[in-house]
């Protein structure tokens, strides 16, 4: 596909379970971001991967959250022992280089996570 | 740290009205500034950007000017259309660090015919 693909589009899980969210960036894009969108809270930065550099994990809210990017392409965001406050839309975005270049961020449609 | 503050919505206008959505920022150095738009049922997409002071970004009739003296990047459109109904996000990138984007909370705009 031509855009950023995220799966699943919706995920309902029970409190305490682990979940994995997947992001397929646009081919050739070196930068990949994860954001969380909660009602009334805007977009909260979670983690940023750029090429082979160490990721910027400064936005991860707790050690229950982790992310990896294999082979510089697909990324997986893992939330362990989910809590109700983790319910949100998780957005992935990619760009050819950083946002200060001429390449904008391309966002996926997100994964809506509901923790019951 | 870096932050973005934008006017709270929702904003409701009639077609052909003038639109202003205020955005101010706090940042070290010289960030780049952006407006992103999220139409109903779609993903976020870049609307316009400005990379240095006094630059004006423009697209689809929308404009925003990078004002360093007032640390602002207000979004304006002279005559809105129903199709402009969306959520608008102001954002900045950290020019001195990892370049991650920091977003405001978003402003929902509804344009009525």
What is the radius of gyration of chain B computed over CA atoms, rounded to a whole number of angstroms? 14 Å
What is the radius of gyration of chain A? 13 Å
Q: Overall pLDDT of chain A, averaged?
A: 91
Share of helix among residues of chain B?
under 10%
Describe this structure in words.
The complex is a heterodimer of chains A (116) and B (113). Chain A is mainly beta and 116 residues long. Chain A has strands at residues 5-7, 10-13, 19-24, 31-38, 42-50, 65-69, 75-79, 88-95, 106-107, 111-115. Chain A has no helices and ten strands. In chain A, the strands form two sheets. In chain A, strands 2, 4, 5, 8, 9 and 10 form a six-stranded mixed beta sheet that branches. In chain A, strands 1-3-7-6 form a four-stranded antiparallel beta sheet, with no helix packed on it. The mean pLDDT of chain A is 91. With 113 residues, chain B is mainly β. Chain B has strands spanning 3-6, 11-14, 19-21, 23-26, 32-38, 45-50, 56-59, 62-65, 75-77, 86-93, 101-103, 107-112. The radius of gyration of chain B is 14 Å and the shape is globular. The model of chain B has no long low-confidence stretch (mean pLDDT 92). Classes of the chains: A mainly beta (116), B mainly beta (113).
List keywords for this structure.
heterodimer, A: about 120 residues, mainly beta, six-stranded mixed β-sheet, four-stranded antiparallel β-sheet, 10 strands, about 0% helix, globular, B: about 110 residues
Topology of this protein?
The complex is a heterodimer of chains A (116) and B (113).
Chain A lengths: L4 E3 L2 E4 L5 E6 L6 E8 L3 E9 L14 E5 L5 E5 L8 E8 L10 E2 L3 E5 L1
Chain B lengths: L2 E4 L4 E4 L4 E3 L1 E4 L5 E7 L6 E6 L5 E4 L2 E4 L9 E3 L8 E8 L7 E3 L3 E6 L1
Brief sketch in words of this structure:
The complex is a heterodimer of chains A (116) and B (113). Chain A has strands spanning 5-7, 10-13, 19-24, 31-38, 42-50, 65-69, 75-79, 88-95, 106-107, 111-115.
């Amino acid at each position: 596909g031509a855009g950023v693909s995220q799966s699943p589009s919706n995920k309902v899980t029970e409190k305490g379970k682990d979940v994995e969210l997947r992001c397929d960036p646009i081919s050739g894009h070196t930068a990949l971001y994860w954001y969380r969108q909660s009602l009334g809270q805007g977009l909260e930065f979670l983690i940023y991967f750029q090429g082979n550099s160490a990721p910027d994990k400064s936005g991860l809210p707790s050690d229950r959250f982790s992310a990896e990017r294999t082979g510089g392409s697909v990324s997986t965001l893992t939330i362990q022992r989910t809590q109700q406050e983790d319910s949100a839309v998780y957005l992935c975005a990619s760009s050819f280089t950083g946002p200060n270049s001429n390449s904008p961020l391309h966002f996926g449609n997100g994964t809506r996570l509901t923790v019951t | 740290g870096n932050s973005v503050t934008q006017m709270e919505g929702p904003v409701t206008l009639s077609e052909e009205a003038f639109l202003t959505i205020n955005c101010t920022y706090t940042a070290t150095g010289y960030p780049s500034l952006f407006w992103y738009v999220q139409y109903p049922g779609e993903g976020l997409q870049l609307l316009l950007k400005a990379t240095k002071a006094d630059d004006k970004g423009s697209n689809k009739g929308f404009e925003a000017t990078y004002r360093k003296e007032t640390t602002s990047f207000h979004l304006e459109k002279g005559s809105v259309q129903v199709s402009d109904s969306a959520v608008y996000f102001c954002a900045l990138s950290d020019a001195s660090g990892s370049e991650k984007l920091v977003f405001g909370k978003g402003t929902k705009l509804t344009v009525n015919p």
